[in-house]
TrEMBL record:
<keyword id="KW-0443">Lipid metabolism</keyword>
<dbReference type="GO" id="GO:0005737">
    <property type="term" value="C:cytoplasm"/>
</dbReference>
<dbReference type="InterPro" id="IPR016035">
    <property type="entry name" value="Acyl_Trfase/lysoPLipase"/>
</dbReference>
<feature type="domain" description="PNPLA">
    <location>
        <begin position="1"/>
        <end position="115"/>
    </location>
</feature>
<feature type="short sequence motif" description="DGA/G">
    <location>
        <begin position="102"/>
        <end position="104"/>
    </location>
</feature>
<dbReference type="InterPro" id="IPR033562">
    <property type="entry name" value="PLPL"/>
</dbReference>
<dbReference type="Pfam" id="PF01734">
    <property type="entry name" value="Patatin"/>
</dbReference>
<dbReference type="InterPro" id="IPR002641">
    <property type="entry name" value="PNPLA_dom"/>
</dbReference>
<dbReference type="GO" id="GO:0019433">
    <property type="term" value="P:triglyceride catabolic process"/>
</dbReference>
<dbReference type="GO" id="GO:0016020">
    <property type="term" value="C:membrane"/>
</dbReference>
<protein>
    <recommendedName>
        <fullName>triacylglycerol lipase</fullName>
        <ecNumber>3.1.1.3</ecNumber>
    </recommendedName>
</protein>
<dbReference type="GO" id="GO:0004806">
    <property type="term" value="F:triacylglycerol lipase activity"/>
</dbReference>
<keyword id="KW-0378">Hydrolase</keyword>
<dbReference type="GO" id="GO:0055088">
    <property type="term" value="P:lipid homeostasis"/>
</dbReference>
<dbReference type="GO" id="GO:0005811">
    <property type="term" value="C:lipid droplet"/>
</dbReference>
Length: 284
């Protein structure tokens, strides 16, 4: 999955107009990857568990879908939830006969119940989000998402549609990993197996001997300390490193890293862009 997402970002960067190049079709790429990753009974496995946020085009209302009739039904809901006008195409896709687009336009962080954990790529008031060094007093609320007004968030917003280099993507992935660890540690959710088992029985059976759950458990403390020092899974790190190495090698990349990079890029654009449009015209 990580390699598929990275490949998608690299494809978006490769065009003359970036992700707006006519030959780059985000909806087709998403569909191909989802068909490859999801099993045939995916809809049965996620029914009642996965909640997809959609925005109904004709009235702008938010709709949450959690029941799916088939894998195709699930795929159509996912594609509709990822549709951003102009970036993804002109006409929003239909789901069950009605046109929908990204749920972020109406409710970017819907809360299903009181146990919902909100996750955001922007520094703000979400449960899991970046914690920037500079503390800002000003926040804005965009589609139910609190966003701090800071230069870091401005940079992140600018990168929503234009993916950065693999090195930066790797750094963002690592930051998300660290943000999640901090949330788990802050909410005392990193515990040893014994304490987790005891915690899970509190609500169900309410055992009389509640002393079994030791708030000062040494195993829990050790596990928390180890978690805070841990890194991303080695497989994920390897995939990012391979993408970085691939992006940095080759004579064309070597040439474009030199002083003439911008000049060559500008001079070649008038020749590359018409070719892209012609290619897209015949392939779409």
């Amino acid at each position: 999955m990580t390699s598929d997402v990275l490949r998608l970002a690299l494809d978006a960067r490769s065009g003359s107009l970036g992700p707006f190049s006519p030959s780059f079709n985000i909806q087709d790429l998403l569909l191909k990857n989802l068909e490859k990753v999801l099993p045939e009974d995916a809809h049965l496995k996620v029914n009642g568990k996965l909640h997809i946020s959609l925005t109904r085009v004709h009235d702008g209302k938010n709709v949450i879908i959690s029941e799916f009739e088939s894998k195709e039904d699930l795929l159509q809901a996912l594609l509709a939830s990822a549709f951003v006008p102009v970036f993804s195409g002109i006409l929003p896709p239909k789901f069950r006969g009605i046109r929908y687009m990204d749920g972020g336009f109406s409710d970017n962080l819907p809360a299903i119940d009181e146990n919902t954990i909100t996750v955001s790529p922007f520094c703000g008031e979400s449960d899991i989000c970046p914690r920037d060094d500079s503390s800002q007093l000003f926040h804005i609320n965009v589609a139910n998402t609190s966003i701090e007004l800071s230069r870091h968030n401005i940079y992140r917003i600018a990168r929503i549609l234009f993916p950065p280099k693999p090195e930066v993507l790797a750094s963002m992935c690592k930051q998300g990993f660290d943000d999640t660890l901090r949330f788990l540690h802050r909410n005392n959710l990193i515990n040893c197996d014994r304490c987790l088992a005891v915690q899970s029985t509190f609500i169900i059976s309410k055992p009389e001997d509640e002393d079994d759950y030791d708030l000062e458990c040494h195993d829990c403390k050790r596990q928390q300390e180890e978690a805070l020092l841990s890194n991303m899974p080695e497989k994920v790190v390897t995939i990012f490193q391979e993408a970085i190495d691939s992006a940095n090698k080759g004579i064309v990349d070597w040439l474009f890293k030199r002083k003439g990079k911008k000049l060559l890029s500008v001079l070649s654009s008038p020749y590359k862009i018409p070719g892209k449009f012609m290619f897209a015209s015949f392939t779409k």
